[in-house]
């Protein structure tokens, strides 16, 4: 049992060194890997600790290759694989899942925020793109891997959520915001991040793997690219000169600080059997999780609806 105390200043390199023994030999698959983002920072932090295989997933082979080149330049003996698929496409997700062999840790890290309205295609229902990419796609990918027995016993599934889940519960009666006519960029992101915590709740209940959700903190990445400037100023993320600032509303983290919770969730032995937990600053923090995001009945409802959207049941997990 590790008895380490983590906080918002804990960095990924430091915790990776702490859990070096747990990283050694593991096969780890991370979605949403690109230079200067959280997926990349997580991978770069664990790379020195002899993982068995790192599977870098993303939608652009050029981006993934860039990340792989840097990794191999620093760690020539590292075993890496690239997996290209778009989380907005059920057919690409299905194909990618067949290409994965056994893994120990899956991090559903890819995500989008506050993008202009777009309707998801290929799903059986009215769903907008933030819910599709942040929840429905990862729901299908994860469950296909579990169904095929590709997550090893003692394995983990980490779902990168956000404190923005407080912005909205699940709008089951109108998941797609009436074909976009009632679209709300913040609410839709919040809904998708609530779905992340609920998915971890269900996986913890239905499977033997340790499924955890986390909030990484606020980090200046490409995730912010769709956020309207006036909104960032109003939220005091930026000052009126357009510069990022710390305030009582937001204390920005570095990439290293942001990715620390990814490393802890994936490898801290203390979290074994703590499935369904929500982590903030490296610690289980259920008090920071909205009640609607950890309600088992709501989680069950979301599971059924998600099965309907992707056109496949995963009752085998029960
Ligand atoms: N940064 C923060 O402050 C913050 C706060 C709370 C939670 N989070 C969560 O942390 C996670 C990582 O965010 P980040 O800050 O590292 O964001 P980022 O820099 O925007 O990286 C997100 C990654 O997701 C990928 N992605 C987007 N749409 C995709 C799709 N349709 N199919 C496959 N991959 C797709 C992106 O690929 P492309 O490069 O091809 O676009 C990118 O690699 C997200 O789940 C986010 O919600 C971040």
From TrEMBL:
Keywords: Oxidoreductase
Molecular-function GO terms, alphabetical: oxidoreductase activity
SUPFAM superfamilies (UniProt xref): NAD(P)-binding Rossmann-fold domains
Classification via InterPro entries: NAD(P)-bd_dom_sf, SDR_fam
Membrane listed as a keyword: no
Pfam families from the UniProt entry: adh_short
Family according to the record: Belongs to the short-chain dehydrogenases/reductases (SDR) family.
Protein name (database record): NAD(P)-binding protein
Natural source organism: Amylocarpus encephaloides
């Amino acid at each position: 049992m590790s008895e380490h105390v983590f906080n918002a200043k804990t960095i990924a390199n430091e915790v990776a060194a702490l859990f070096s023994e747990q990283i050694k030999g593991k096969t780890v698959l991370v979605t949403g890997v690109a230079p200067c983002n959280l997926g990349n920072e997580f991978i770069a932090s664990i790379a020195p600790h002899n993982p068995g295989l790192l599977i870098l997933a993303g939608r652009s082979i050029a981006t993934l290759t860039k990340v792989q080149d840097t990794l191999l330049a620093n760690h020539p003996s590292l075993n890496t694989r690239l997996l290209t698929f778009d989380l907005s496409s059920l057919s690409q997700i299905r194909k990618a899942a067949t290409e994965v062999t056994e893994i120990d840790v899956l991090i559903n890290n890819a995500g989008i925020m506050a993008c202009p309205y777009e309707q998801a295609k290929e799903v059986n229902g009215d769903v907008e793109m933030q819910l599709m990419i942040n929840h429905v796609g990862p729901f299908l990918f994860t469950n296909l891997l579990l169904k095929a027995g590709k997550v090893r016993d003692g394995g983990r599934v980490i779902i990168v959520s956000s404190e923005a889940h407080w912005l909205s519960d699940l709008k089951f009666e109108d998941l797609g915001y009436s074909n976009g006519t009632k679209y709300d960029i913040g609410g839709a992101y919040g809904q998708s991040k609530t779905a992340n915590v609920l998915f971890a709740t269900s996986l913890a209940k239905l499977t033997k793997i340790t499924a955890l959700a986390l909030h990484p903190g606020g980090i200046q990445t490409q995730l912010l690219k769709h956020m309207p400037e006036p909104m960032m100023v109003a939220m005091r993320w930026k000052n009126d000169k357009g510069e990022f600032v710390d305030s009582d509303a937001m204390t920005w983290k570095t990439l290293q600080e942001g990715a620390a919770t990814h490393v802890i969730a994936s490898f801290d032995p203390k979290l074994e059997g703590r499935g369904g937990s929500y982590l903030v600053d490296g610690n289980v923090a259920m008090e920071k999780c909205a009640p609607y995001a950890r309600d088992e009945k709501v989680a069950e409802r979301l599971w059924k609806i998600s099965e309907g959207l992707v056109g496949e049941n995963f009752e085998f997990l029960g």
